[in-house]
Amino acid sequence: MNGSSSVNAFKIETVGELEFYASRIFDYIIQPFIEGTEYTVDIFCDFEGRPIYITPRERIEVRSGEVIKSRIIKDTVINTECRLLVDKFHPIGPLTVQLIRAARTGTDYFIEINPRFGGGAPLSMKGGADSAEALLRILSGDSICYQSDQMEEGTLYCRFHQSIAIPMAPVKIDIKAIVFDLDDTLYSEKEYVKSGFKEISRKIPELKGAEEELWSIFLNGEQAIDRALAIRNCYSEALKEQCLDIYRLQRPDIQLYPGVEDLLRRLRNEGYRLGIITDGRPEGQRAKIKALNLEEMVDEIVITDEIGGTCFRKPSDIPTAL
Length: 322
Known about the structure:
Elements: H1 15-22, E1 36-45, E2 51-63, E3 66-72, H2 76-89, E4 93-102, E5 108-114, H3 121-126, H4 131-139, E6 156-158, E7 177-180, H5 189-203, H6 211-219, H7 224-231, H8 237-248, H9 260-269, E8 273-278, H10 282-291, E9 300-303, H11 304-308, H12 318-321
Parallel strand pairs: 7-8, 8-9
Antiparallel strand pairs: 1-2, 1-4, 2-3, 3-6, 4-5
């Protein structure tokens, strides 16, 4: 089984759903569903396989499999279990362990062991378990004992991504035009998704009244139309395509983010030329642009797929040249 970021991972409620997904996913596995609190444990061992840091973190918020909000905790049960794991395998260096503590029983189910630094390891380092510094000290010949009291318990850490451009030399930039993206920049794309689900639930008898059900499945990271049709035992490729056509050809009920219209009008009044470059199916993007009345607010709009296909989508520089 190969997988990443929960793609093609589904919670199965009935035998019918199992048969449906089993016929469409190659080389699948079945696991029990455990409802509870998920933890990551950042473990760091010396070159003899002895633990230096064992740092449990509660996973509060995750995006695409990567933790972005995490709280450091002290938990004697988790620490004891991880000490047993280390004693068994004698790992060297970093180890990232994931587990779920079942809500009903309190039992810890270990679901992953990765022999590397995890994406959230800097959170543990910030909390006092500085495994990077420990590694440098070991390479310098120091001997480090198990550090059990270095963590700042309860501290909440958040991760974010930031891009910074630094010019080689100070330059004066004469800005004449400003180009915007569309989706999730000028409006919330989730509004578009919700609008599409509303149209499907209104026009497809088999999914009548399923707007909230579709939305809930979508928020769970699953393929909403496939799953909803499977739950209602009415899945067919033809019906799925009918749903997709309604979604793609909808007249979306969407609004600009607060302040966007005022910003565009102010920039235009200040003499800037304004443009939009957006990727996606032309009919869907045109419908969004019309619903948002953007043609009256900007000077140029480029839908990259209209140039000649998906190969012209960002980061291609051809749409910018147009």
